[in-house]
Amino acid sequence: MTENVTDASGIAVGDVVAERTVHLTRESLVRYAGASGDFNPIHYRDDVAASVGLPGVLAHGMLTMGLAVETVVPWLADAGRILDYGVRFTRPVVVDPDAGADVTVRATITAIDDEAVTVELAVTAADTAVLGKARLRARRD
Predict the structure, then answer these.
(1) Which of 17, 46, 51, 98 is least surrounded, with the fewest CB atoms within 10 Å of its CB?
(2) What burial class does residue 20 get, using C-beta atoms within 10 Å of its C-beta: 0-12 exposed, 13-18 middle, 19+ buried?
(3) What DSSP character marks residue 99?
(4) What's the fold here for domain 8-24+64-139?
(5) Under 8 Å CB-to-CB from 128, ≥6 apart: which residues?
(6) At how many degrees (to 10) do helices 61-70 and 26-36 cross?
(7) CA distances from 66 to 74, 85, 141 (A)
(8) Cβ-contact 5, 115 below 8 angstroms
(9) Consecutive 10-residue runs of the chain (141 residues): their mean pLDDT?
């Protein structure tokens, strides 16, 4: 891991600045549903997920997106440094009723200029990319 984004001398393109694995359970999904207000039953009922052709209960896309960006916040030291953030949802995160699901995030610097740092987020579950083009730009001070 490299120094904080404010230490311009300690970072370089290719540096991994943060990584973590978050374990999701069905309880995690219910808690997120309560916090977000998204009570779509595909996020907690196997029968409903199956009836619409899904491989199982899915984690909320915004939960996955939030977990990814939150991985970088400790390195940034201030979430207010984020200038922009975007992702493409490529595959769902299926949360098994017993085993849950592990979401792994690895944040790598892909560009640095005088004003900002660009960070690419590799986000996987079950060895499959679940977010594509997951990038953020963070202000340098």
Answers:
(1) 98
(2) middle
(3) T
(4) Thiol Ester Dehydrase; Chain A (3.10.129)
(5) 91
(6) 90
(7) 14, 10, 24
(8) no
(9) 62 97 98 97 97 98 98 96 98 98 98 97 97 97 82
